[in-house]
Amino acid sequence: MKFYARRIAFYVVTLWATISLNFLLPRLLPGDPADIMIAKMQRAGGEISETQIRNIKALLGGTDQSMWEQYINYWSRLLQGDLGISITKYPTPVVDLISAALPWTVILVGLATVISFVLGIGIGAWVGWRRGTWVDHLVPFTTVLQSIPYFWLALVLVAVFSVALGWFPIIGGYDVFEYPDGPEWSWSFIGNAIYHGFLPALTIVISSVGGWLLGMRNMMVSTVSEDYIVTAEAKGLKPMRILRTYATRNAAIPSIAGFSISLGFVVAGSIVMEQVFTYPGVGKLMIQSVQNSDYALMQGVFLVITVAVLAANFIMDLVYGFIDPRARHNV
C-alpha cells in the first residue's frame, strides 16, 4: 500500500507541475504571444469580437490581471475542456483539432508499437535461448535497421513502394477523393485507412524492432544462467516449458518498463514520419502549430502528450508493482 500511495502522490505532483509549466511557457516567450495570435486571427478571418480578444489575452497573458488570477482562470477553463481557439484553422477550437488528429496517431503508432514490441520480445527470446547459433546473426541486422534515421527510411519506402512501384499511396491517411465528406464508420473506409497507413506503420516497426530484440536477447542470456533455470533443466522439464514459463517471463520484466514509456509517447506520434507521409496525426498537428506560431494549439498538444505519458507510466508502475513484488518492497 505504501508503494501505491507514493506512486499516486508522485504523479499528482508531476501532473500539477506539467500543467503549471504549460501555463507559464507562453508568458516566458519574448514578445507578446497574445497580440501575435490576435493579429494572425484578424488576417485569417477578418474582425474578431472583444470577447475573443479578452479570452485570448487571458489564455496567453497580456491582460491587466495578476499572474495568480490568470493562473486560476487557466485552471478553470482547463477543467471545462477549453484549450482556446486555433489560428491554424481559425476559428476551430483546439480541442476539436486534437480530437480529430488523436485517433489517427493512437491507432497507427499504437498498433505499430505493439507489433514491434511483440516481434522484438518474441524473436529476442528465441535468439537469446539459441545464443551462439546462426540466429545470433539477426542481432546486427536489426541493429543496423534501428540505427537508420526513421525519416530517411520513410523516404526510401515512399520512393520504392509508392513512387517506383505504385503499390501504396504517397500521402494522406485516406483517399480524400473517394471520401470527400471526411472519415466515416464503414468497412470500406477502414480498409482504405489501413491501406494508407501500411507504409507509416512499417516504418515504425522496422526502425524500432531492433531495440526490443537486442534488449530481450541480452536479458535472456543473463536469465538462462540463473540457478532456477539450471534447476528446471536438472528436473527434466521440457525445454519449451522452461523457455516460456521460466526464462521468457522473467527476462521480459525489464522490457515492460520501456514499453510503458513507448506507449506514453504513442500520443506524440512519430512527428517527422507523419510529416513525410502527410499523415493527419498529432505529430503533423504539432509541426503546423510551430510553423504558424499557434500558441494555443502548441499548448494543447503539449498538454495532451505530457498527460498521456504520465498516465501510461502511472498505469505501468502499478502493473509493474503487481507483477514484480521486489518493486513494492524497494520503496
Q: Rounded to an integer, what's the Rg over CA atoms?
A: 24 Å
Write down the overall mean pLDDT: 76
* Strand runs, count: 0
Helix share, percent: over 70%
Ranges where pLDDT stays below 50 over 5 or more residues in a row are: none
Question: Largest sheet at a glance?
Answer: none
Strand percentage: under 5%
Domains (count): 2
N-end to C-end Cα span = 11 Å
Q: SSE order in H/E notation?
A: HHHHHHHHHHHHHHH
Shape: globular
Structural class: mainly alpha
CATH topology of the largest domain: MetI-like fold
CATH class descriptor name of the largest domain: Mainly Alpha
The CATH architecture name of the largest domain reads: Orthogonal Bundle
Comma- or semicolon-separated keywords:
331 residues, transport, 0% strand, 15 helices, 2 domains, mainly alpha, transmembrane helix, MetI-like, transmembrane
Summarize the SSE layout with pairings.
Blueprint lengths: L1 H27 L4 H13 L4 H11 L6 H13 L14 H36 L8 H10 L2 H15 L22 H37 L3 H8 L4 H13 L1 H12 L6 H7 L4 H10 L3 H29 L1 H5 L2
Helix pairs in contact: 1-14, 2-3, 5-8, 5-11, 5-14, 6-8, 7-8, 7-12, 8-10, 9-10, 11-14, 12-13, 13-14
